[in-house]
């Protein structure tokens, strides 16, 4: 009985949330059909759902999605190659770290994405501009989290390393980096989110690449149901990315 | 561990006569000298990487032009309107979600998971709804700043200590007095932090929208500089923009500290 009450207490709010969402969609559909909302501005939700088939077929939504994933993958690979070593270097040289940490924090909250016209001049309308924008956005959180992870290594682990007379490099690779892995993963996750936001955003702004360009294309063709459906798709992909990496992070924390 | 390392490093640096400020100055000098060498070496296009002197003159020219201040005023007005609209809706949503455990668990996950999506993709919808003028830019900024402010207000509402609420009730405070004397002061740090985050995102949202489709504002000036390939002016605009964003962040941050005891 108590288990049933606990289970309903857990699922009732989620069910209510979903019910509210579906009610909202139904109300919009009803208002559009009743002529209370302009169909030229807001398409019928049923039309939006119907257009998914067309998007996967004619507009190659899956291929566009893979292009965005590929750009994000390249950005993440560059980020890992630059961000983790820079964070490690700053950890190893405390005076350099002290001098630059506030700068990196400021960079993390600065409107870096607005530099995209600059990279547009340097690299042109190409994947390089999109990838560089993703890298720049993800770099500050990854560097900061790498420093945080290395700084948080337990003293007992460092003492074990010292008792084995490990060299500085061995200490870093055998003790500190493995111990810092969960926090570095948090940094990678943040970097991935920041990079993905910027990549899709810049794709939309420069009208090049994967999902962002498709939204721009459909808006310019005034394909309202298709445009809304692609936006819903991007939201679902972002939510899925965020959810999966969040679960992965929790699992990694439990394992460490 | 972290602080001990830093302290040890600082002590070592002090012993060797190097201070953090000196390191910062050296880094800045190296950075600027590196830029100047690159600009004058001919390895990169001089138009893309102009010498510092050219950027400096472009900055002076920009700051002494009336058109810049007019466009800056347009952007500032759009950002403030976005913050007022998105912030107030976000605050009310946050209070509702934070005040009720049931509503919080039912609807907060949607805001939490929608928060990190790229907001600029909503811009075509905003153009459809609010037109190509400042309305769509304000809407973009408002949508962008809604999420961090709503989440911070909900967290702030949940963090209010129960003892403060009991004290208010024991004094038979009215709803208005409870809100003004208990809830709002207790939520202030969390809400101000949300506004600080929201302001940064509202600036980005508004300016990105201006770069996409506009005929006024700093975003428009950046795209204008890009279209005529006036790189020194673009660098000057980006420098002023970063200064504007950091300044705005610092101003809001000043109000976000713990409440002073009377």
List keywords for this structure.
heterodimer; A: 256 residues; mainly alpha; MetI-like fold; B: 262 residues; 2 domains
Task: Write structural notes for this entry.
The complex is a heterodimer of chains A (256) and B (262). Chain A is mostly helical. Chain A is built from ten helices and no strands. Chain B folds into two domains: 2-49, no CATH class; 60-255, MetI-like fold, CATH 1.10.3720.10. In chain B, helix 4 packs antiparallel against helix 5, helix 4 packs across helix 9 and helix 8 crosses helix 9 (175-212). The longest helix of chain B is centred in the C-terminal third of the chain and has 38 residues, at 175-212. The radius of gyration of chain B is 23 Å and the shape is elongated. Chain B starts with a helix and ends in a 7-residue tail after the last helix. Chains A and B meet through helix 1, helix 4, helix 5, helix 8 and helix 9 of A and helix 1, helix 2, helix 5, helix 6 and helix 9 of B.
Helices, strands, pairings?
The complex is a heterodimer of chains A (256) and B (262).
Chain A: H1 2-33, H2 45-57, H3 61-92, H4 94-109, H5 116-123, H6 127-151, H7 155-163, H8 168-206, H9 211-220, H10 224-255
Helix pairs in contact in A: 2-10, 3-4, 3-6, 3-8, 4-6, 5-6, 6-8, 7-8, 8-9, 8-10, 9-10
Chain B: H1 2-15, H2 20-41, H3 52-63, H4 66-99, H5 101-114, H6 123-130, H7 134-159, H8 162-170, H9 175-212, H10 218-227, H11 231-255
Helix pairs in contact in B: 3-11, 4-5, 4-7, 4-9, 4-10, 5-7, 6-7, 7-9, 8-9, 9-10, 9-11, 10-11
Short description:
The complex is a heterodimer of chains A (256) and B (262). Chain A is mainly α. Chain A has ten helices and no strands.
Helix tally of chain B equals 11
Order of helices and strands of chain B: HHHHHHHHHHH
Per DSSP, what share of the residues of chain A sits in E-state strands of 2 or more residues? under 5%
> Which architecture of chain A does the CATH hierarchy give at level 2?
Orthogonal Bundle
- Going by CATH, the homologous superfamily of chain A would be MetI-like
What oligomerization state is this entry in? heterodimer
Largest interface (CB < 8 Å): A-B, 58 and 59 residues
Give the CA-based shape of chain B.
elongated
In sequence order, what are the helices and strands of chain A, one letter per element? HHHHHHHHHH
Largest sheet of chain B: none
- What's the count of strands of chain A? 0
Low-confidence stretches of chain A: none
* CATH topology title of the largest domain in chain B: MetI-like fold
Quickly name the level 1 CATH class of the largest domain in chain B.
Mainly Alpha
Helical content band of chain A? over 70%
Instruction: Kindly give the count of domains of chain B.
Output: 2
